[in-house]
Amino acid sequence: MPGFAAHSWSACGYSVQKVYEWLLGSQQRVTWQPFVWNRLSLPKHNFLAWLFGKKRCLTQDRLIKFGVITDGIYYLCGAQQETQAHLFFDCCYSQRCAHLLQHWLGVYWQGDCVYWVIKWRCKSLCKKMIVMAAISGLLYCIWEARNKCKANMVMKRPEAVIEHVQAAIRWRLQRSDFVQQKDSTIAWIRDKRLS
Q: Is residue 133 part of a domain?
């Protein structure tokens, strides 16, 4: 066993963590880790955010590259080939959804919202986690709208997408042990309405 002998784990003591780190090798830390593993996000939102961060969403351009499909037109706007960048916030549909989410949250960003929220310095950790969960939910809901449009040829209104995000955030806040109910941030998000 070259790994066991080479690292002399028998002399310095065996540790599962040391073996795990040895098996992984040197890994580069990613900047989007706090966004993906936010405790206020739903697990299905976390999973899609993880795929997004790794640039592994199965968009039309990737399916063409794999030889699965031949047509790569994006179903929600029909203007361009579907890529991850186009799907998430280059498209007029997703831009409209992002604008509605910004209006609802009262938090505005320019450019890539995922990297913006990671670098955003907010006084309230709870508020930052809510915004991260909302953006993560938005990614998922846009992906879901894209899939429903592709399968059923029915396009969900951007307002309906944001209502779905709002419901998911409020549901998660009601069931979260992380957030104290008397926190003013909870009142901030609970009282907000999409107008």
A: yes
